[in-house]
Amino acid sequence: MADTTYTDPVITRLRAELTRARRALAESASYFSAQEQASAVLNCTNPETVQSPLHRFVASAIASVDDVLEDTSPGEEQHGNHVARLLAGIIADLDRCPHGRHHQDPCGRCSGGRSTGNPHLTAGQRIGYSIHGTPIYVPKPEDRYAPEAWRKPPTRQA
Ligand SMILES: [Zn+2]
Question: What pairs with residue 114 in β-bridges?
Fold first, then answer.
């Protein structure tokens, strides 16, 4: 389960259904408690001594649901990794030509049969700034997987 992300839509839906079922179980447990309290008062006994087996079963089911909800909770780190993977995918797509091919990969629709890359991003182009005002540049296609390359100003050609 190392690669499982609990942000999958199916798991999110299952968690929502479990949460609804848990609410129903909690209402049942509350009903059983009230019944047991009333019975204990009538019989002058401790409510725990009149706890029904069904109430114990419902309480056990609630505990199991809580365990599953906790185990499948999209933790912050897991969610952060998921977001980082999605962002890395977007960065990796930035060199694709309008036909979806990476720069220099075979492309039947780019001139010369090779992808000419993203026409909107050219190497050396300033595209933004960090929080400290450091410019962000488009690296050469071969350097785009190196984070530091996005911070390097373009080298002047002689
Ligand atoms: Zn192309």
Answer: 106
